[in-house]
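Methods — Computational structure assignment.
A single polypeptide chain was analysed. Its primary sequence is given first, followed by the predicted tertiary structure written as structure tokens.
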Amino acid sequence: MPTSRRTLLAGVAAAATLGSLARPAAALAAPSSPDGFAAVPALGLPGTTGGAAGPSVTVTNATDLAYYAGRNTPYTILVSGRITFDDMITVVADKTILGTGTTAVIDGGGLQLGSTTRPGNNVIIRNLTFVNASDDSISVTNGAHHVWIDHNDLSRGYDGLLDVKRASDYVTISWNHFHDHSKTTLVGHSDTYTADRGHLRVTYHHNFFEGTAQRHPRVRFGDPVHVYNNYFLNNELYAVASTEDAGVLVEANYFENVAHPAYVGYDKSGPGRLVERGNVYVNSGTPQTAGTVTEPRTYYAYTPDPAASVPSLVRAGAGVGRI
């Protein structure tokens, strides 16, 4: 049985320094609702609510985190302090995992949303720092749908920092800070995993991809994958790649010091489709484009911020301690 559990105390606040986005943290607020694909009613869910229907518990160690993440009932799991472990903890349906203050850290391990027998649907992950993962920091897999990953800090993992694959769907990735890593975020398991067709609808918005080399994201099969209002800075290899007939809309982003903002096809993967509109390119190359993409407004309403305002907005709002 778990060794610690308690209800969230209102008004948790802290001041700490974490990475280049650091500033004094505001009081921890209750999660608000997601936008983008995570908010779309589909597959029997009205949107993404996480563990709102269940109680709140606080965890300070990996044993308790794994226990509550694997329960078959809703929970809001409040992570306090640094939790160090290896490998992946499985998160099953109807969970919110929320860091308290600015010092909640997952060190050495990662979170896997769903297994082949226990789906990771309706999951929210917010306000956590992920570092030194021995595999992925966050893996959305095995058909998990309605997932919101928001206001986290992810760096220095072994494989992907945040991957969406194996027929997962209706995912929003927003206001995260990705840094000090190579293979950042993948959509689609592999060139041969054609079961991903018809799934992998993902929204990326207001993320800061700082000094990460590639995969922001690299997409296979998904259509549409909507990449808007993100800040790409000093990305060595490329920013976005659409492959294997994926449909990617790259909209109102800010690219700075990015030689290859967008590829159509990459490495051994066949070409996808990619549309760009309203982006700003500063000391950056020309994006590759091809074909047409399903319009995200088919699914949800949104109003992009002007691309020129993205660096200041994202620097001020992305990462931990901002909710």
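Note: The radius of gyration is 18 Å.
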